[in-house]
């Protein structure tokens, strides 16, 4: 069965895209067939796996708004077992356009039916908002992975996120679960980091991954080369931690 995971947090810059790309690539490296879906108009997941904007004909916008077949927009990446549904800036219009469409919450879910069973994991990179695109991702998903930046205001905004999850559970997707909470950009040199980790573990007693993602400059360099960290610098700390996370996710899903 395919496990569909939305990577979400309405705060920008917490590591959603970095996690989508690198968890996806590490799962693929472990032999899993993985599809990334870029649901952010910034298209950072798309460029981060080496797809050049100018080469994209149809993207996730055409799927959500014009019901263009999702299978026809899937592109392979340089890494085996890792494909992507790209996004371009035209997706920015979808947030508003969806409002007037029929079944606006379930359009992504419906489009995914056609590829059911073809992947082990589908990871959806959500935009930094709790609007229609994120609601579509939550409605289509089995679970949500929440990256949380290890900083002072880490928990800020999480109650709104949980509220949105509850609303989607109630109205569209009762099975929706929290896949896990991932601490990102951890800085071991400050006391604050450890305090934040303790605080987040208290807030989510059952859901925080053992693996913590530290700040690692190689992780921030990799996207400009269009490569996941395991291809850009396989010996880096960043590669090591995302490989650990992938193993944790595999185990949690009984794979
Ligand atoms: P989001 O998708 O939540 O907006 P990103 O994954 O794009 O966040 O990360 C925001 C910025 O921080 C990017 O420039 C990214 O390269 C960088 N970054 C993400 N994770 C790390 C990390 N662990 N160490 C260093 N830089 C990181
Ligand atoms: Mg992003």
TrEMBL record:
<feature type="domain" description="AAA">
    <location>
        <begin position="3"/>
        <end position="178"/>
    </location>
</feature>
<dbReference type="InterPro" id="IPR025669">
    <property type="entry name" value="AAA_dom"/>
</dbReference>
<comment type="similarity">
    <text>Belongs to the ParA family.</text>
</comment>
<dbReference type="Pfam" id="PF13614">
    <property type="entry name" value="AAA_31"/>
</dbReference>
<protein>
    <recommendedName>
        <fullName>Sporulation initiation inhibitor protein Soj</fullName>
    </recommendedName>
</protein>
<comment type="subunit">
    <text>Dimerizes in the presence of ATP but not ADP; ATP-binding is required for double-stranded (ds)DNA-binding. Interacts with DnaA.</text>
</comment>
<dbReference type="InterPro" id="IPR027417">
    <property type="entry name" value="P-loop_NTPase"/>
</dbReference>
<dbReference type="InterPro" id="IPR050678">
    <property type="entry name" value="DNA_Partitioning_ATPase"/>
</dbReference>
């Amino acid at each position: 069965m395919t496990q569909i995971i939305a990577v979400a947090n309405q705060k920008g810059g917490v590591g959603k895209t970095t996690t989508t790309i690198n968890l996806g690539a590490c799962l693929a490296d472990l032999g899993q067939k993985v599809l990334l879906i870029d649901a952010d108009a910034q298209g950072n997941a798309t460029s981060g796996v080496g797809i050049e904007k100018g080469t994209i004909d149809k993207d996730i916008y055409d799927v959500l708004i014009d019901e263009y077949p999702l299978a026809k927009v899937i592109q392979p990446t340089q890494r085996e077992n890792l494909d992507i549904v790209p996004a371009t800036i035209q997706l920015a219009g979808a947030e508003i356009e969806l409002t007037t469409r029929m079944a606006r919450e379930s359009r992504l879910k419906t489009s995914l039916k056609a590829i059911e069973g073809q992947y082990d994991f589908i990871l959806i990179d959500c935009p930094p908002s709790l609007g229609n695109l994120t609601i579509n991702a939550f409605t289509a998903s089995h679970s949500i992975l929440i990256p949380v930046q290890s900083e002072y205001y880490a928990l800020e905004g999480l109650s709104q996120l949980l509220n949105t999850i509850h609303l989607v559970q109630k109205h569209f997707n009762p099975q929706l679960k929290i896949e896990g909470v991932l601490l990102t950009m951890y800085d071991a040199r400050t006391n604050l980091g450890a305090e934040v980790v303790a605080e987040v573990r208290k807030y989510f007693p059952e859901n925080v991954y053992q693996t913590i993602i530290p700040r690692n400059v190689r992780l921030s360099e990799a996207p400009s080369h269009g490569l996941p960290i395991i291809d850009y610098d396989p010996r880096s700390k960043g590669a090591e931690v995302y490989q650990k996370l992938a193993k944790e996710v595999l185990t949690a899903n009984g794979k």
